[in-house]
Amino acid sequence: MTPPAEGTATAEGTRAAGASPASPGVAPEPPAASRDTIRHPETSTLDLAHVLRTVGDPLRLSMVRVLAAEGELLCGALGEHTGLPKSTTSYHTRLLREAGLTRTRQDGTLRYISLRSDDLESRFPGLVDVLVTGGEGAGTTG
User: Fold this and answer.
1) CA–CA separation, 5 vs 63, rounded Å?
2) Helix 48-55 vs helix 58-70: angle between axes, to the nearest 10 degrees?
3) Measured between alpha carbons, how far is 24 from 13 in angstroms, rounded to an integer?
4) Total-model pTM
5) What is the DSSP letter of 77?
6) CA 16/CA 21 separation, integer angstroms
7) Residue 69 gets which letter from DSSP?
8) d(CA 122, CA 55)
9) Which DSSP symbol is given to 83?
10) What is the dihedral of CA 121, 123, 128, 129, to 10 degrees?
11) DSSP assignment string, 108-135
12) How far, rounded to the nearest angstrom, does the alpha carbon of residue 35 sit from its chain's CA centroid?
C-alpha cells in the first residue's frame, strides 16, 4: 500500500508536506546533531551583564567556586558538593552553561562540568579571580 499524498487526511490525521510516513503514535526521531550536541556560547558573544546576573545567585556562585577549586566534575559530584538534588543541580548548571561560565562535556550518559576560566579571562580579564576570591586583595592598597 502506498502512503497518502502530502496534505491529505488519513485515519491518523493529516500528513504534512515533506513528512515521511511513520508508525502511528511514534514521534519522529530528532536529528542526531540537535540531540547529541551541547551548545555553548562563543567566547566573543559572552555578555558581562548576563554573566553577572547568573552568578548573582549565591548557589550558582558557590558552584563556580567549587569548579574553580576542583576542576572538571561530574554533574552529580557537583551536586554532592552543594548538597542539591540532581534536578536542581542540572537546572543551575544549564544556566551557568548558557551564560558562558561553564562547559559541559558528555561521555555516554555522564556529563562533566568545568569552568571556562581561559575563555572568561580572555573576554573579561580579572573576572574569574574576583568571582573565586570574592575580590579579597584585588585592587587594595595598603
Assistant:
1) 54
2) 100
3) 10
4) 0.70
5) H
6) 10
7) H
8) 18
9) T
10) 70
11) TTEEEEEE-HHHHHHHSTTHHHHHHHTT
12) 13
**Domain 39-133, architecture per CATH:** Orthogonal Bundle (1.10)
Q: At 99, which amino acid appears? A: A
* Cell numbers for 142: 595598603
Specify the range with the lowest mean pLDDT, choosing from 19-33, 36-50, 74-88: 19-33
* Cα 122–Cα 126–Cα 130 angle in degrees, nearest 5: 135
Nearest to 96 by CA among 37, 124, 142, 54: 54
Alpha-carbon torsion angle 35, 39, 78, 60, nearest 10: -130
> Which residue(s) pair with 74 in the sheet?
112
Of the pLDDT bands very low, low, confident and very high (cuts 50, 70, 90), residue 123 is very high
What would you report as the CA-atom Rg of the chain, rounded to the nearest whole angstrom?
A: 22
Beta strands in 65-101 (DSSP E): 73-74
pLDDT in tens, 33-61: 445 678 898 999 999 999 999 999 999 99
Cell readout for 58 is 549565591
